[in-house]
Structures are given as C-alpha cells and as structure tokens.
TrEMBL record, chains A, B:
Residues 88-389 form the Tryptophan synthase beta chain-like PALP domain. It comes from Allosaccharopolyspora coralli. Its cofactor is pyridoxal 5'-phosphate. This is Threonine synthase. One of its GO terms (molecular function) is threonine deaminase activity. Gene3D superfamilies: 3.40.50.1100. Keywords: Lyase, Pyridoxal phosphate. Its EC number is 4.2.3.1. SUPFAM superfamilies: Tryptophan synthase beta subunit-like PLP-dependent enzymes (SSF53686). Pfam families: PALP (PF00291). InterPro entries: Ser/Thr_Dehydratase, Thr_synthase-like, TrpB-like_PALP, TrpB-like_PALP_sf.
Length: 421, 421
C-alpha cells in the first residue's frame, strides 16, 4: 500500500487527506482519485484507499464536535472544517436500559442520529460528499433520494452556497418533500419509484459533468461518511468495539461501511481489535438482502418495494452482495419484519427510551427483537442499534396508532373522568 | 447570601446542588426549597437562589456533553447525570455568514436547538424539572403545552419510566400531537386556547399533589434550564458573552433566564463581565410584550392570540413584566412581525444556512431583520439568534409557500425541460 500510495500522492492533483487512490471492489484495480464510481477494468464499484499514517486518540479527542474530528480517516481535505458544511455527527450514544429490559437482554446502546442537522445519518455522508466535491471543483450538489438524503443534500448545498438538484419519487412523504423544498434548491418530483429515480440520476450524471450526484459519481467518497457511525460508537464506548450491531439495510452501504470503520480503527491501533457481529435489518415489503441471506445465495434478486419503511425501499440494493459478505464473515444474520412490527418497533422505542424514530428505526428495533426472540442475537452480549432517522418525517406510519387519549372540556372534572383518576 | 445559605442547607431535606432556597421576585422573601411557585408573602413568582462556591471552566469542560456539564449552576442533584433523563443541550452554535451577509451585518451566530432530543429548547427546561421533581419525590410529569413542551415532557417521562399527563389545545399541529402521543403517556386534547389549558393545569396542580407540572408547581426549577442556552453560548464563543442576543418571547421566561445565565457566569468569574443587549421577538398576532415595550408601559395587556407561531401564542405571558425590565436594563428592544414575515424568516434561514426552523425561529429571524432595518440592532456588533425549535413540527406554515419545482417523467429530457438546462 505505501509504495503505491506514494506514487499516487505525487501525481494526484487533489487534497483529500489520507485518501490516496480508488480501488475496485472485485479485483482490486487501482486508479487515481477522481469523481468516478465504477471500475472500467472489472465494472465493480470503486472504493477509497488510504495511507493513514499515525493517528492518535488525543488528536481526535481534541478535534471539533462533529465528524471532522475523524478527518484523518476520511477522504476530505485537511482544512475541511474551514469550509461551510452542516458539520454533522457526534450524536448521542444512549444507554437503553428500559429497552434492554423489555427485550430481555443485558445491554443495549442506541446510536441516535435523529440529532443530526436534518435529523438522519444522511448528513454524515453528504457532508463528506460535499467536501470531496468541492475539492473536485463541482458547484452543484445533486441526488436521487427516498427523502432523508434529499433533506441532507438540499440543506448542505444551501449552507455551502451551492445550487442543488434533488430528485425524489412523487409519492414521497409530505414532511420529506417540504423539508427538501424549503432550502430553495431545485427539487423535482419524479413519477416512479426510487429505483426509477436512481436510474434517471445515473443518466443525468453522464450528461451533466458539473453536477456532483452525491450517491452516484462521488459515491466512493460519500459512502465513507458512514464510517463515522463506527468511529463515534467506538469512541463513545471508551475506544472499544461493541460485540453486536444491528444496522438497517437500504442500499446496504451503511452496513458495509460500519464494518470498514471498525476495521480501520483496529488497523490504525485506535482500538484493540475484538470480535464483533454485524446484523442487517429489512422490512419484508423490501427484503431482497434478507431473502438472499436466508436462502444461502450470493446474488440479490431485485424486488418491487411495498413497505411503509420508504427510506429503506430500495428494491435493487447496490451493496447487497457486500452486505452478505460482511454479515457472513462477522457471524451475524439478516432478518426482516412486517410493517405492523415496524410500527410496534417505533412505539416500543418511544415508550421505553423517549426517542421517536422514523420507520427505518422501527425496522431496526423490530428486527433486534426478532433476532433476540429467535436466538440469533446473543442476549448476554452488548448490542448497538443504529437509529438513523427521525419520526417526525414519517408521521403517516403512526397516525392511525397513536393520538390523544381524549378530547376534553377545560375543567378538572373532565380531566378526572378522561383519566379515571 | 452565604449565612442564609448555610442555615438553609442545614435544614433543607433536598439535594438540589447549589440551590439553597426560593426567593420571591418582587420583595425578595425567602423560603426553603420546595415544589412551590408563588410567594405567599407578596404573591410574586418564586425563583431559585444559589450558593455557587468555586466553579472552574476546566471542570465544566471535563463534564458530559449535555446540560449536566453545568450542573453546579443548576437546581439539580449532584449525581443528576446518573438518573435516566433525555440529557439535552450542547447543541450547535453555528456561524451564519450567509445570513449575516443577507441581513447586512458583520457577524451572526445561531444557537440551533433543533438538535435537542425532541428538537426544541424545551428539552432543557424539562430535563431540569424532571431532575428536581425526582428529588421532591414526584412520580408523574405533567404540563400544559403549545406543543414543544408536550413533546419534551412525554419523551422525558418515558425515558425516566414515569407516567405523564400532557394537556394541549385541541387545535394543535398534527406533528406535535403525534410526537406527544407516541411516547404512550396520557395525552389529553383540551377544547380551548393555550391560556385556557394553562389555567386548567394550575387547577389540576392544586388537586393532584403527586403530579409535577413542570411549568406550574416546579416552575422555579424548570425555568432555570433556559440558563443553559446562555452557558453554552458563552462557552462556545470561547468563554465570553456576546454583544447582542435576539430571543423569541412566549411566556418570556427564556429571555429573562438567558440574562440570568449571563449574570451568573460573570458573578462566578467564569467569564469576564461585558455589556450585552437582549432583544425580544414576537409575532404581531400575539405581541403583548412588544406592545407594552413600544408604549413605554410596565404592565402587559393580555391578548387573544392569532398567529401561525403557535408555540409563542401565549396571550397572558407570565414573565412579561420581567422581560420588559431585562430588555430595558440591557438597552435592547422588542419588536413584532407579521405571519408573512415569519414565513419569510423561516425561508431565509433555510436558504442561507441550511437550517429548517419552526415558526418561532422564523419569528426570531424576521425580528432580527426588522431590528437591523430599523437601526435598533447594531450591524457592527456580534449577534446571537436563538433558534429554539424545528421546522418539521410546523409544516403547515410553509406548505403553501414551498414545494417541488415540477413533477416530471423519469427521463433526462423531462428534467432538462423542467430546469431549463
């Protein structure tokens, strides 16, 4: 790695910190850093390779209270924190004793990404994509999105003073549409599902070379942002790895990058290596990865999504095969749950820990329950659940299930009667 | 203070950290710490008095990343962080150069409380109220609310494993209703406006001695939580006070407590004292404090609220007279803006800084603009705007103003046509 890295560093015109080149995931072909996402050698996805050098815990701890404290582990310029960005990250890691008790396990931690600037983990990946895109000379930030990404891209572009082009399925939840539109970029509703919108974005990326589609042409950089979930979790646990992690699967990128993050922490000596299992969570209205896992297949059979967990409704998940690799290698599992269980998961989390998650969070909690009930998740091992988005964005999912106990006149008698006390 | 404090400390049965007694705001009558809110001597509100002792910056900086880092300045038990609570605070202080440029001023900072657990500053006051209520032996957390407080109380009670009784006007925004209900406490919709609901809560507090109404019978403790906005702002500025602050006014409590926070930082030597001006912001559909300020009156004339800024729609603001005192003493001013300006404020903030605030945030931004345009706010002095709640909770305010630029077929031609490029 070092020799190749030095060669590349000499010729590369970009400052992307420790990133030295792109490597194809299948056959390991190397190429210089650039806004490209597929290897023309083996047609597999490109991933960022690094020359990390010496990284010390103290330097990270002395850094900003955002993902930029990990800039020496990310493909971003060394002065990244000096440019306007949404500066996400450093969200809470909540010890969830009430939930653990309800599920009959020893210890659960919740990585609560509802506290990010636009209230989902997407702020992490978009912040990294914006930083890399700026270095590459782009001026427009774009994406196809199931909603959370749209919010994050539109907000980050506004803060940076960039134009944005955001494409969403026309059926998207009202909250996500309005929250994407309010930042005043170019929001387009597209007739079709997410896979249609994604295909359109890939075509547009070919036609508009000045548009940085965060999850298309700058995807190798973008996806590295998910590693910060792993970095923060380890640092917040006192610089150690958890034993079990449950991660929702949309494209599958987040799950594989959490694994990559744990590996890099170990490789750089920031944590002592220790075994961990990564579990995947899907809704069974869109569970192509869970299906492949359960049937022992290596290939993903695309599906037409039909679930209330719309932020996970990717029927042809790009990183599905890598998710299968990661989960099998670490000894985890992948499950899926019904929409009813998703709602139960949202309500269980809210009732026990006071955290209101979006449907993706319900998927994670419900799958954790199922994995425990079926003996796939060790109740005596410590488990981290990734709560990646906010309940305010998916109110439709709960509106028929929760509400006021009663509507009363403004008198104490009316209150006593309504509450039976 | 010290002598009285020692006497009180000896006899008081409660551990509320540096808090030693309650003092009436009008005539300074003292009484022991208890869940009481009005002085029976002069019928004025009770406020917490302290014996702070020596507090060092290093101890605060070494504390948790939540309001509990300031526990030695709050009426909470010394082991407060060991009990389940939502642990809010340490939200971002964002340097808003784009907004400053748009408004024609030198430097603006945004205290962005949308990052709190339930996405408003109310998590701060509720966390302190819960901690004090626990020490007093309560087991039920209750409130009347315009919405944000309902969310915060219901979430905090769930996390603590307490029952909650939350009373909201039946006209409340859907998002705030659902977000209050999901935590599975006792949510009641009340036929009436906030002032009716508030009156009902005061009656109920008299009947149910085991209910801690956070903003009624434990209000003296609750309201101290707003000081943490001042503490964090000063610490995030590098342990100094800002020159100008713009604060939205509902009951008026937050504004007066930010002033109290700055005073306490100065008094304890944590910052060097320096002059600052506090400005108040209202919507003109509910502007009784702005009216009194502009007319040079000391008394507040209650109004019947009619504004989209429902979280500020308190027609008879309890702390109104104290707001007038604070603003006049510091050399600030109080303005009010139209509902149209509120929406413009929300959109301006989103477009320039990528932050989506609720109507209260729109009120703050729009008033800042008005205060600048009318020469009341010094464009060369540094200004902090308090962004106290989240746009996802008040979508109705923007829904007729923002949306997709177009709905298109999934083709590149359709996109080009829609965007004109």
């Amino acid at each position: 790695m070092t020799a190749a890295a030095q060669t590349t560093t000499t010729t590369a015109p970009y400052d992307l910190g420790p990133a030295v080149e792109l490597v194809s995931k299948e056959e390991g072909h190397r190429q210089p850093l650039a806004p490209e996402f597929v290897s023309l050698e083996d047609f597999s996805p490109l991933e960022v390779a690094y020359d990390f050098g010496k990284i010390r815990r103290e330097d990270i701890e002395a850094g900003p209270r955002s993902i930029w404290r990990y800039k020496h582990l990310l493909p971003v310029p060394s002065n990244v924190e000096q440019h306007p960005n949404t500066d996400p990250g450093c969200t809470r890691l909540v010890r969830a004793d009430n939930l653990a008790k309800a599920l009959g396990v020893k210890r659960i931690w919740l990585k609560d990404d509802t506290g990010n600037p636009t209230h989902s983990f997407k702020d992490r990946v978009v912040a990294v994509a914006l930083a890399a895109a700026r270095e590459f000379g782009f001026k427009v930030l774009a994406c196809p999105s199931t909603g959370n990404l749209a919010n994050a891209v539109a907000a980050a572009a506004a803060r940076a003073g960039w134009d944005s082009v955001v494409l969403v399925p026309s059926s998207l939840e009202r909250a996500k549409v309005l929250m994407s539109a309010v930042y005043d970029g170019s929001l387009l509703a597209v007739d079709g599902n997410y896979d249609d919108v994604n295909r359109l974005a890939t075509e547009l990326a070919g036609e508009h070379e000045d548009w940085a589609f965060v999850n298309v042409n700058v995807r190798p950089y973008y996806s590295e942002g998910s590693k910060t979930l792993a970095f923060e979790t380890a640092e917040q646990l006192g610089w150690r790895l958890p034993e079990q992690v449950v991660v929702p699967i949309a494209s599958g990128s987040q799950l594989t990058k959490i694994d990559k993050g744990f590996n890099e922490l170990t490789r750089t000596g920031l944590v002592e290596g220790s075994p961990y299992k990564i579990f995947g969570a899907q809704a069974n209205g869109c569970s192509p990865v869970a299906e492949a896992f359960k049937n022992g297949r290596d290939m993903i059979q695309p599906v037409r999504p039909d679930t209330i967990a719309r932020s996970l409704a990717i029927g042809a998940p790009a990183d599905g095969p890598y998710v299968l690799d990661t989960v099998r290698r670490t000894g985890g599992a992948i499950e899926d749950v019904t929409d009813e269980e998703v709602v139960d998961g949202i309500r269980l989390l809210a009732r026990t820990e006071g955290i209101f998650a979006e449907t993706a969070g319900g998927v994670t909690v419900a799958n954790a329950k199922k994995l425990i009930d079926t003996g796939q998740l060790d109740p005596d091992a410590e488990t981290v659940l990734m709560i990646t988005g906010d309940g305010l964005k998916t109110l439709d999912a709960v509106q028929d299930h929760v509400g006021p106990k009663a509507t009363v006149k403004p008198t104490t008698d009316a209150v006593s009667e309504a509450l039976g006390k």
